[in-house]
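Appendix B, record 7
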Amino acid sequence: LLLIFWIGHRVIHESVAQAERHLSQRALKGDMAMASLLASGIQQELQERLSELERLGRRLAVNYNGMTPDDPGFLGFRSDYAEILDRWREESDARLRDQKRTPDESFFLTDRDGVQIFRSPWTESVGESFSYRDYFHGQGREIPLSEVVERIPPRTTSGISRAFRSSNTGRFMVAIAAPVWNVENTEVIGVLARTIHISDLLTQWEERIDGPKTGNVPADQRDRQLMLIDMREDPPLILDHPWLQTHTKNGGSAEVSLKSSLRLTTDEELLLRQTVRQGEGIPDFHDPLADVDPTYSGQWLAAPALAPGLDWIAIVQERMEDAVQPMDDLYWIFIRYGLILLLSFSVILVLLWWLIQRASARM
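Structure tokens (predicted):
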């Protein structure tokens, strides 16, 4: 009986292990499809907002040929630029809400020297110079104020800024920025920009991936978790992760300290670039923030996908143990019933032995 049980146990174990491998491969393929959809959706969302800024910017420059004496313009902009921008912001927010998309966190315009001349919602930052900001000059970095010794020229192409941390919410944001050219397209007269929390880019996708009740479940307890990494940074920087949504809720640590915790190691960067290039998933992924928070330790299934034109990598990940949980449950069902059968046969054998002994004694 023990031999039969051992053989049965080995057969069940190997069968369940094989089934778990197939189940994890199917889960990973599904996650790959979701990650590809997520990356394309992020790129489309940012590109659409960028195109809107470019179209709006073409309406702001004053046309000196048609200017009347009582309409001198302002720094190269139409004199009614603020009314145009206010009306556009109101219409944009209403349209985004109707489409169940996140409105911009802020919307602003600077002149050619980086001085903010319009902002919605209005704050005391209007009148301050932001020429050191990446969204203004487009150099891929924030220029330290100590290095600003001469005029910094504005960007000449549209783009997405490096991530920076919101002073109001503590969450990471990006600015989507476009240069505003004069009517002749010979000189940049300002920079038009809109900001959005990076986590808000993923919000509309979370319900599609985990269902409509996702919003009621804490980020670190969802079946599938989303991560966004900016590969333009050196080393690459995690822009969004479930850990960030809880850690930055009340401010968290300083930006420099926080960013140091969110940097990928060289090995992690190479792994992601290789798997994205090969179009594969990672069946034995270790979360980069596992060292920061043990909640994210263990083995994960991870599906990375590159957002076209952004050099951002979107990752859909789920715990291996959750993906193969049905087979684990089935394994213990087999073991439980195997033990019941073993016990039943043992009782029957003991009973037969007792009956045989009793019959022999009577003879």
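Remarks on this record: The first helix runs from residue 2 to 57. The chain has a mean pLDDT of 82.
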